[in-house]
Design a protein that fits this description.
There is one protein chain. The protein contains 3 helices and 7 strands. It is α+β, with helices and mostly antiparallel strands. The strands form 2 sheets. The chain has a 4-stranded antiparallel sheet with strand order 4-3-6-7, with no helix packed on it. A 3-stranded antiparallel sheet has the order 1-2-5. The two termini are 20 Å apart. The model has no long low-confidence stretch (mean pLDDT 85).
Length: 130
């Protein structure tokens, strides 16, 4: 399992000559947002999880993201997505943006697990996760 994260902090686009990769990511995340309000709704943190079921386990698989936000204290928030039964690999995306990002603040720590029922198959975590 591989996790890529991106933090979109500003609606202002960076200079192409200074950081073309960052600009490309910003443009991708802002695609379709026309008004200033729409663009500000896109601010937040984005996580892309590329998974591979190398054991080809049978049964329901799920990717679970647990995280802490700056304004939520020690409360653990959770998002999850069920994986298609026939697939052995794929991409899952988690987004903390809009109202949840404005009120909860930035993500301080996270843990992403691939699970088969209650059994953890694979896990990645930020260095701040307890």
């Amino acid at each position: 399992m591989q996790v890529k994260q991106y933090h979109l902090k500003s609606i202002d686009v960076v200079n192409m000559k200074q950081a073309p990769m960052v600009r490309g990511e910003q443009m991708y995340r802002m695609r379709g947002a026309v008004s200033r309000e729409e663009r500000s709704q896109r601010l937040g943190q984005y996580y892309s999880v590329r998974w591979n079921n190398v054991n080809e386990l049978q049964g329901p698989l799920r990717i679970v993201m647990d995280y802490h936000q700056a304004a939520t204290g020690s409360e653990v928030l959770t998002m999850s997505q069920d994986l298609p039964a026939a697939e052995t690999s794929g991409l899952v995306k988690f987004t903390i943006s809009g109202e949840s990002y404005r009120t909860g603040g930035r993500v301080l720590a996270w843990r992403i697990r691939m699970m088969n029922g209650s059994v953890v198959i694979s896990e990645k975590r930020s260095y701040m996760w307890k």
